Amino acid sequence: MYFSSQFDRSYDVVVIGAGTAGASAAISAHESGAEVLVVDKQPAVDRRPNSRYAAGYFLVPRDVEGAAAYLSAMYAVNGELSEVDPALIRTWAEETAVNPRWLADQGGRSAKVFDGGEHTTLDAHGSVEIHRGQWAPGAAVTGCPVYTALDHRMTTLGVDVEYGASAQWLLTDAAGTVTGVQLRVDGRTVAVRAGRGVVLAAGGYEFDARLKRQFLPTNPVHFYGSPANTGDGVTLAAEVGAELWHMNTWPGYLVAHQPATGYPGGLPIDLWAAGGFNAPPGADLAGGFFADGAGRRFTREPGRQHTLHLEVAGMDARRLAHPRIPAWWVFDERRRVKGPLLSTRMGPAGPVGEVAWSADNLAEIDRQWVRRAPTVRALAAVCGMDPDTLERTVAAYNASCASGVDGEFGRPAHTLVPLSDPPYHALALWPGGSNTNGGPRRDADARVWSVRGAPIPGLFSAGELGSMYGLLYPAGGGSIAECMAFGRIAGREAATRKPDHR
């Protein structure tokens, strides 16, 4: 712990991190009457919190009781239910249900786009729906419209925001109450008092190689969010004795990875647009499947985009190898011409515009980022697969397409389109995702708990830093929903906490 009784500046509430969770906390604290400072280590110009890489979806319960039951069923799958306070689950359901109205109150816009949770075999999965934020006028940056609306609202309220300010450590008194933050700003050390509380909203550790090796169950994992997310909040919380939870989980996705683009993380693929696996019946689909390193198909491709990484990361214990790292997306010319393989709704090739990818994928084929060959056997050779195995896999897949029945994996009939239009293509895929979940444990009031089993006075958290989600992720937009809900709670609870003596 770092003790300090001398401060250079003083506020009621200090929020560390200026993404969706941080902006939500700042707005809520300000509207609760607090004097608020938000600090973020990124520069003001072209700042890129994780939220800017998101597609702008957020989960909304349409039935609070059902949503709580759905989340409880998710925890039960991995034996996690006993570790989660029922009050936290209930608060999540109640507060995420408020998000559309609250976002509208802040000048944002949203509309329902999908029904139901991702895990359709679990109880009450139909109790949630997915909304998507819509562009709102006045936003200073591009990206996820939920974030841009809240960022604009924070600015119009006149909340003090200091960019280029790195939080070095939390300050406490002798009793362990968090009293402020020590910052590094323009080469200077600045101690800032937080008379009522500090809110940690600094995101995950997606771009810290050491923390990923330490906590994630497989390596490598390539995330597609902000390279500024290097686990600062994890370190700050651990230094004051916070209990960490969900450090080994993340909402997964399959991603390409090509450092030659200039972006160090993952590149999420598009399974929805351009006739992808998840397109609805009646769409003009293209064929394709996922194969392991030998050329074997290994999964039911449509749906489950946030759990498929668990299959990909599986180890062959006999061979002491990961046969699906990388995996391969195998497709033909029909898919190639339908549009970019990468998602343009989210990630670095989305609105943030960090990576350019051609509409017809030809530039990437020329660079050999996408493999191409005139025959299936030749494609296997350029990918390092066994030609006989891949040839048998394609033949079996095409037979399923002809019969309309995928006897091995149960893929929906309308997605069974044969591979019959050469040349053939393959893109290497890796475990990835938008964010890590790990960080300090929080309760229903967004208070951070210590390893001793009690709240740390003056310390709150929100968002993906210490997310309440465990092994399973409820549906697309679960993180943005949690960021808004618990950012709002953290800001309010910090602002209304009895102030320390100044």
TrEMBL record:
Question: What Pfam families does this protein's entry cite?
Answer: FAD_binding_2
Q: Name one GO molecular function term.
A: steroid dehydrogenase activity, acting on the CH-CH group of donors
One GO term of the biological process aspect: steroid metabolic process
Which cofactors?
Answer: FAD
State the InterPro entries in the record.
FAD-dep_OxRdtase_2_FAD-bd, FAD-oxidoreductase_2, FAD/NAD-bd_sf, Succ_DH/fumarate_Rdtase_cat_sf
Where the record annotates domain FAD-dependent oxidoreductase 2 FAD-binding, the positions are 12-480
Keyword terms of this UniProt record: FAD, Flavoprotein, Oxidoreductase
Coiled coil spans: none
PANTHER family to which the protein is assigned, alphabetical: 3-OXOSTEROID 1-DEHYDROGENASE, FUMARATE REDUCTASE
**Name the UniProt record assigns to this protein:** 3-oxosteroid 1-dehydrogenase
State the species of origin. Answer: Phytohabitans suffuscus
Top-level taxonomy: Bacteria, Bacillati, Actinomycetota, Actinomycetes, Micromonosporales
